[in-house]
Write a structure and sequence with these properties.
This protein is mainly β and 192 residues long. The protein contains one helix and nine strands. The longest helix has 27 residues. The model has no long low-confidence stretch (mean pLDDT 89). Bound molecules: 2-acetamido-2-deoxy-beta-D-glucopyranose (NAG) (2 copies). Homodimer.
Length: 192
């Protein structure tokens, strides 16, 4: 008995070592745990970004274009309409103020009863160290019916890898005749 036990123990240890190697071997190809520090994920920061979004639908150089008309004009909410935009983002409310990036994406009327847009967009920044980095936003936009609209920041690229947060949008100026709008944005973003 006294001699069998140590032999058994070493068998068991060998078995576990072997199965651990198997599991590790399997994980190496498909999913591998990584060290956060080696991937520059040391300290998460919270940043605030403030700028103005220019949705220009009129004139010779519109930046926001209807690409799919609503299927019928019977709907009050223009349900189904799709706009694609490449809208300037500026530091101040004037279009002539410093450009910090572009908002590229689409909005679509996605509600049949009340006015609500589906917003899908990337904020592609060119300012300072954020040049080349972008934030991705996906949200519901009840438009001017709500003073402050909130959209989730669902991710990002470059300096915004692993980003998450929210954007608050308020109308700075809206021309009901042309549809042109200047929207003030405040973003609160966790990133590394
Ligand atoms: C659409 O608009 C046109 C012109 O205003 C009108 O004649 C027509 O009846 C409308 N159609 C519907 C389905 O409301
Ligand atoms: C941003 O980066 C691009 C590509 O590296 C460069 O061409 C451009 O001048 C930069 N813009 C600003 C405003 O720094």
């Amino acid at each position: 008995m006294a001699r069998i036990l140590p032999a058994l123990a070493s068998q068991i240890i060998l078995f576990f070592l072997f199965s651990a190697t198997l599991v590790y071997g399997e994980e190496k190809g498909f999913a591998t745990p990584l060290d956060r520090k080696q991937h520059k994920l040391r300290k998460e920061k919270l940043s605030h970004f403030h700028f103005f979004f220019h949705d220009i639908q009129s004139g010779r150089n519109p930046t926001s274009i209807p690409v799919v008309p609503p299927p019928s004009n019977s709907s009050k909410t223009a349900f189904g309409v799709v706009f694609i935009f490449d809208n300037p983002l500026t530091l101040g409310p004037k279009l002539s103020s410093k450009t910090v990036g572009k908002a590229q994406g689409l909005f679509s009327s996605a509600s049949q009863e009340e006015f609500a847009l589906l917003m899908v967009m990337n904020f592609a920044f060119i300012e300072g160290k954020y040049n080349g980095s972008s934030l991705s936003i996906l949200g519901r936009n009840p438009g001017a019916t709500s003073k402050v609209r909130e959209f989730p920041v669902v991710g990002g690229s470059g300096l915004f890898r692993f980003a998450r947060g929210y954007a608050l949008a308020t109308t700075h100026d809206l021309n009901m005749k042309t549809g042109d709008a200047i929207i003030e944005y405040n973003l609160y973003v966790f990133h590394y």
